[in-house]
Amino acid sequence: MPRIDAPTVAEHRAARERALLDAARDLLTADPDRVPTLAEVGERAGLSRSSVYQYFASREDLLSALVRDSFPTWQRRLDTTIAAADGPHGRVIAFVRANLELVADGEHALARTLAVVAPSEDVAERARDFHDQLLVPVLAALRELGAPDPELSAELVNAVVHAASRLVEQTGDLERSLRATTAILDPYLRGLQPAAQASGTPAPDQD
After folding, report:
1. Are 151 and 132 part of one and the same domain?
2. d(CA 91, CA 80)
3. Integer distance in angstroms from the first to the last C-alpha of the chain?
4. What pLDDT, in 10s, does the model give residues 131-182?
5. Residues near 140 by beta carbon (within 8 Å), at least 6 away in sequence
C-alpha cells in the first residue's frame, strides 16, 4: 500500500493534486511559451511520472484543471474588492485596481499563457466564460450609471485595463498604470447620468 502523507486518503490525494497544480503553475510562469510535460510537472512536485498519471490523464487534463483552479481565485479577489467599493463609479475603479494588482502579482501572465497554450475547446470555453463573468459587475455598474451602451462600454473599460496590464508587466509600475487608467476612466464615469436621475423629470428647456 502506498505511503499516505495525510490523515485520510482524500486529504492525501488533495495535497498531491495541489502540489502538481502549483508545480505546473510555476513551470508555465517561468516558460510561458511551452506546456510542460507531465514528467516535468511531477519532478517539480517531487513525484514520479507514474504518480502524476493517477491524477491527470494528459497535459490537456492538467491544463483544464489549472484553469478551473486559477480563474475562480481571480474572480474571488475581484468580487471582494468590488464589494467593498462605494457606489457604481467606485465599483468600476475597484475593478481596475483589482485587475492591475493581480497582474502585478503575476496572475494575468498565467491566464494569458493558459489561453494561448491550452489547445482544447473545453479550456477555451472556460476562458471565455470567465471573461464574461468578470465583466458582470462592471456591466451592472455602468447600467446603474446610465451608460447608453453598457455592453460596449464594459468592453472598452476592459480594453483600457488590458492596455494598462501590459504596462504593468513591462515596467512593474502598478501605481503609475493605475493613475493613468483612472485618469482616462474617471471623467467618463463622472459624466454619466445615473439611471435614477435619467428616468426622472426632464430638465426644463432653457430660453
Report:
1. yes
2. 11
3. 90
4. 788 899 999 999 999 999 999 999 999 999 989 988 888 888 999 999 999 9
5. 88, 91
> How many other CB atoms are found less than 10 A from the CB of residue 103?
23
Q: List, for residues 104-128, the tens digit of each pLDDT value.
A: 887 666 666 666 665 566 666 766 7
C-alpha cell at 20: 502538481
C-alpha cell at 126: 472556460
Asked, for residue 68, whether it belongs to a domain, the answer is: yes
15 plus 79 within the same structural domain: no
Is residue 172 within 8 A of residue 109, CB to CB? The reply is no
Q: Is 180 helix (H, G, I), strand (E, B) or coil?
A: helix
In which domain, by residue range, is 25 found?
7-57
In the block, residue with C-alpha cell 463622472: 190
- Reported pTM: 0.70
